[in-house]
């Protein structure tokens, strides 16, 4: 089976991890800070806070900006459930707004229409690796005094109008799951230029303890206090070492993802039954996913899988999950464009280690099914 996504770990990565395993520090050591500095430098942010997963990063971001009971956070339904769940973790309420039909990115006009006196923040999701319209979104957030959060879990290595993803919002959230642009096994990070947000997230990931071990060691003290409800969301040095090694390969890997995307787009250019998502002209697409729309989606999914092509569907709109239906009364008709897209979208295999012969097999198999 050719999967839709897969990590690429080489001997250099393995050696980096082994070096840490032989060191005195397996967690809360120097590699975590080194990884944070490397990501911050890459994206042009002043601060980066590493955590244990992309979900933990989303949760930390919601905590940093003070989301709580009575607060609303606007976000699109075309995302993994963790984007909305992080709002619930803090007692807030997600407000779902529809997407643009040709990119499946959040529609800025619908964001503006959904703002109320309870709105605290807007979460823009860089679906499939394509950055959102941050110019319009930032303008809306500034006008209404809202925090802009980028769920950039798909888009590390991308850019918008020449500015790298990770520097586009007040907080920018990344995931390092194995299918993402780089991996630490599991892991996440938040970048920001706001020192207060950064400090709140650093404490949050470590049980909201008032001092870390470095501070206590420097002061010759054992004393600490728990100042708020925090979590153990720490990233290990083992994972950070893998991330540092992987980060060096990111530019070449993004280039390969874009090359595969171009091959797919050219192959489907004159196939009426297959419609790739539109790529905007002012962005640099990271292509975490390559998504097409097709009316015969369910049939294609089954037949492609039966022939060894591991296609997938990203995503069931979050507001259609039972948790949201039962708690907030959401359902069909709330975001009709996202709901229509969900019935048609199909994610084709795309990852840096995908071979030319495998790309050709995906195309030939898909076209063969359509001809039948």
Structure overview:
The protein has 372 residues and is of the alpha/beta class. It folds into 2 domains: 11-247, Aspartate Aminotransferase, domain 2; 250-371, Aspartate Aminotransferase, domain 1, CATH 3.90.1150.10. 40% of the residues lie in helices and 14% in strands. It has 14 helices and 13 strands. It has helices spanning 11-21, 30-43, 54-64, 82-89, 108-114, 134-144, 195-204, 213-219, 237-247, 250-267, 297-306, 322-328, 336-342, 356-371, and strands spanning 47-51, 72-75, 93-96, 119-125, 147-151, 159-160, 163-164, 171-175, 188-192, 275-276, 283-284, 290-293, 345-348. The chain has a 7-stranded mixed sheet, with helices on both faces. It is globular and about 75 Å long.
User: How much of the residues is beta strand, in percent?
Assistant: 5-15%
CATH class of the largest domain: Alpha Beta
Helix content: 25-40%
CATH architecture label name of the largest domain: 3-Layer(aba) Sandwich
Mean pLDDT across the residues is 97
Per DSSP, the total helix count is: 14
Descriptors for this entry?
372 residues; alpha/beta; Aspartate Aminotransferase, domain 2; Aspartate Aminotransferase, domain 1; 2 domains; seven-stranded mixed beta sheet; three-stranded antiparallel beta sheet; 14 helices; 13 strands; globular
Short characterization:
This protein has 372 residues and is of the alpha/beta class.
